[in-house]
Each structure stands twice: as structure tokens, then as C-alpha cells.
Specification:
The chain is an alpha/beta fold. The protein has helices at residues 2-18, 30-58, 87-95, 100-109, 125-134, 147-159, 210-215, 230-233, 236-241, 253-261, 289-298, and strands at residues 62-68, 78-84, 115-119, 139-143, 178-182, 185-187, 191-195, 223-229, 242-247, 272-277, 302-305, 325-326, 338-343. 35% of the residues lie in helices and 19% in strands. Helix 10 (253-261) links the parallel strand 9 and strand 10 (272-277).
């Protein structure tokens, strides 16, 4: 009964928060924006945060059904099951999108027939956005190391016809791309890695980096998972067709990038790599950010910073996105989380 009541409150609050969302591609003037935040968005989201706090205090989670547009206002909505109070799934439930700037980049790059590789696919928001773009002729590889998260990923893809719902019923949507889910950790060598679960408020923090796990209260591993370089996980067709490779692995980026650096010659010339880098989490002795990226620079890639703001009011303007900005000497001093696009395009902005 408690879960039903909490679920009812969550479902009741969502329309109030979504009513504050605008479809504008440009933000309103500063004064109007401040008035909007103070009078419209803040009260609704504050009520939501009280509910989320209650879930955390009661150590409860609830599943709610969500309709998400994933940055495509004219596309048919997708359906997802979101587990609250997880942060990523909360934002998907409330706003219908996660990381609007990255979602917009993926949508702008992919065309029918393209390939997409997602390393750290989580519950599938970016995979669903990519599937809508690449269509039946496309090919998607979704890599997720955490078995429990991969199960939710598969369920979300299945309910949208992207993958079969069951082996006994292999049917999928006629316009769905060829999609494969790999439950494995991408790394730089074959072996096994310990997996540390993220906290209930942010399951996306699940990591193979022990120091990150310990810092968020998961000192003991929750699973041991197989690990392989990306070149051993992806097929030749998946690598050759990939227009976008997205990497988000909570501090384990250097190993994934080392594995990827060995197969750059197998990628198409216009392939772009989008990676969330967290050098402040890297283990002691790891090379600095610029050195980790050096093999990519040697292969002709240049780095662009992709804006990424997690403040909730950012999501009131999900269509207002910025272009990635080229980084040069700044790379030598960055020691913060940064989202990069590695591209062979030479420009000031992508």
C-alpha cells in the first residue's frame, strides 16, 4: 500500500513539472527565466525532491511507466519503465530525456543505415534515440556490464520492439535496427573485473573502479563480470558501420580507450567518439588526460567539449542545446569530469 501511495504521488507530480517545460530552441531572456524558475519550476521540483527523499529514507524503490520523447518532439514517444529514486531514471520519468546536449548530438549525427555503439548503455535512453534515427538498415551494439541494469535495458528495448521480447517470440518491430546487447565490461584486455554497485539514488554510478565504489559506500564488489577490449566485443560489421561510439563507464575510461585505440583503423573515417571522462576518479598512477588521448590525436582526432549540465532547471529547456567547442591547451590542465567528442573534423565548433 505504501508503494502504491508513493507511486501515485510520483505520477501526480509529473504533469506539474512537465507543464513547466518549453519546446523553445532558445532560452527566454534572463529576467523571464529567473521568474520562471522561482514561480514555476522550483515549487514543483521541490515537492518532487521531498518524495525522492522519502523513498531514500524508507529504502524503497518504485517502478513507474514513462513516456519519453528523447529529444524528438515530432517522433512517436517511446515507453520505458523507470525505477525511482535513481537519478537518471527520475529525469527520464519527469522530463522525457536525459543529457539533452548529448541526445541532440547523437540524433544530429546518425542517419538511416548508420551504426551506433554504446559502451555503458545503462537503461537504454541513448540506444532508443539512436534506434529511431538509424532505422531498419542500421546496426546497434549496447554494452552494459551490470547484469541487473542490462536486464532493465533489455526490457526497455523489447517493449519498444527493438529487440525480441523473448527467445520463444523473436518478433520485433519492422523498422527496428539490428540490435545486440553485450553484458560485459569493455576494457583493454581479456579477463574479469569486479563490479561495484552505484547507490540507490544513482545506479548509473555502478563502476569497475574500486576507489569510486568505496567513495559511494560500495566497498565490496557486488559481482564479477567478464572484461574484453572493444575490438573483441564488437563484430567487424558493428565497428565498420559505427558513426558514433559513446563511452560512459564511471572512471574506467582509460582502459576502454586503450582498447579502442588499438582498432582505430577499423573505424569509418567520420566515426566520432563521445566519452565522459572523469580524471578525478582515475586510480593513482594513471596517465593525465592529454596522454590518455594521445593515440587518438595521432590518428587525426581533435577534441571538442560537449556541454552537460545536470541542474534540473536545465531540463526545462531540453531543445536549447549548444554545439561542442574545440579544446586545445586546456586539455593539459583538466582534472574534472568532462564530456568530449573526438572527431576528425577540424573546426572551432562541431
Amino acid at each position: 500500500m505504501i508503494d502504491a501511495a508513493l507511486r501515485g504521488v510520483a505520477v501526480g507530480l509529473r504533469p506539474l513539472i512537465r507543464a513547466c517545460r518549453t519546446e523553445r530552441s532558445e532560452p527566454p531572456p534572463g529576467a523571464l527565466r529567473r521568474l520562471f524558475v522561482l514561480l514555476g519550476f522550483v515549487p514543483g521540483f521541490a515537492a518532487w525532491m521531498l518524495l525522492r527523499g522519502a523513498l531514500l529514507a524508507l529504502r524503497r524503490s518504485i517502478d513507474v511507466e514513462a513516456s519519453v520523447d528523447l529529444g524528438a518532439p515530432k517522433a512517436p514517444p517511446r515507453r520505458m519503465t523507470c525505477t525511482l529514486p535513481d537519478m537518471i531514471q527520475t529525469y527520464l520519468f519527469l522530463f522525457g530525456v536525459w543529457e539533452p546536449d548529448l541526445t541532440a548530438l547523437i540524433r544530429s549525427r546518425l542517419r538511416p543505415g548508420d551504426g551506433y555503439i554504446d559502451v555503458g548503455a545503462n537503461v537504454g535512453a541513448f540506444v532508443l534515440a539512436a534506434a529511431e534515427r538509424v532505422g531498419a538498415g542500421g546496426r546497434i551494439l549496447a554494452i552494459e556490464a551490470a547484469p541487473a541494469i542490462a536486464e532493465r535495458l533489455r526490457a526497455n528495448l523489447a517493449r519498444n520492439g527493438i529487440v525480441p521480447a523473448a527467445e520463444a517470440d523473436p518478433r520485433r518491430s519492422a523498422d527496428a535496427p539490428s540490435t545486440r546487447i553485450a553484458v560485459v565490461a569493455a576494457s583493454d584486455r581479456e579477463g574479469v573485473l569486479r563490479l561495484f554497485a552505484g547507490p540507490p539514488k544513482n545506479l548509473g554510478r555502478t563502476t569497475t573502479v574500486a576507489s569510486v565504489g568505496a567513495a559511494q559506500g560500495s566497498a565490496e564488489p557486488t559481482a564479477v563480470v567478464p572484461a574484453r577490449p572493444l575490438g573483441a566485443i564488437a563484430t567487424a560489421e558493428e565497428l565498420a558501420g559505427a558513426r558514433i561510439i559513446k563511452i560512459d563507464v564511471e572512471g574506467a575510461e582509460p582502459a576502454v580507450l586503450r582498447g579502442l585505440a588499438e582498432i582505430l583503423d577499423r573505424l569509418r573515417r567520420d566515426c566520432e567518439i563521445v566519452v565522459e571522462l572523469s580524471p578525478h576518479w582515475w586510480p593513482a598512477g594513471e596517465m593525465p588526460l592529454a596522454a590518455v588521448l594521445e593515440p587518438f590525436f595521432a590518428a587525426g582526432f581533435v577534441a571538442y567539449e560537449l556541454p552537460n549540465v545536470y541542474w534540473p532547471w536545465r531540463y526545462a529547456w531540453p531543445r536549447c542545446v549548444a554545439s561542442p567547442r574545440r579544446l586545445r591547451d586546456e586539455l593539459r590542465s583538466i582534472n574534472r569530469r568532462v564530456d568530449l567528442v573526438l572527431s576528425r573534423t577540424e573546426a572551432e565548433t562541431l
